[in-house]
Amino acid sequence: MNLFNNYSKNYNAELYFVYLPALERYRNSYNDKIFKRLEIKSAVLELKIKFIDIHEEVFLKINNPLKLFASNSLYGKHYNIEGYERVAKSVIKIIDQN
Q1: N or C: which terminal CB in the chain sees fewer CB atoms within 10 Å?
Q2: Alpha-carbon distance 53 to 59, whole Å?
Q3: How far apart are alpha carbons 23 and 77 in whole angstroms?
Q4: Confidence band (pLDDT; 50, 70, 90) for 24?
Q5: CA-based angle 53:37:9, to the nearest 5?
Q6: CA nearest 26: which of 82, 67, 74?
Q7: Sign of the torsion formed by the C-alpha atoms of 53, 56, 62 and 65
């Protein structure tokens, strides 16, 4: 992360870290010690990198987060069209606000 951060500063660019939650977070009983979201967020923010938390921005705002994942076995761990669309809109909205 330091390398990316320094690179972006050298080119006067803004660096964003986008946290994309995994299917297992919503399918199984979630344990933050396994997924380490808060540790990752803390480390990124410590470097003064902007953090976009898709878990908070998208998935916590709907009743059934599993509906944003593909339903077939080949792509089951990926987001579906609606999931990617919500993620993209959220990222664009946040970047536009900064």
Answers
A1: C
A2: 10
A3: 6
A4: confident
A5: 60
A6: 67
A7: positive
3-state secondary structure the chain: CHHHHHHHHHCCCCCEEEECCCCHHHHCCCCHHHHCHHHHHHHHHHCCCEEEEHHHHCHHHCCCHHHHECCCCCCCCCECHHHHHHHHHHHHHHHHHC
Find, among 61, 67, 54, 62, the residue nearest to 27 by Cα.
67
Q: How many Å apart are CA 88 and CA 94, to the nearest integer? A: 10
From 43, 38, 60, 41, select the one nearest 52 (Cα to Cα): 41
Residue 34 CB contacts under 8 Å (≥ 6 apart), including other chains: none
Cα dihedral 59→63→68→74 (10° resolution): 110
Q: Identify the CA nearest to 61 among candidates 39, 43, 83.
A: 83
Q: Is the pTM of this model over 0.70?
A: yes
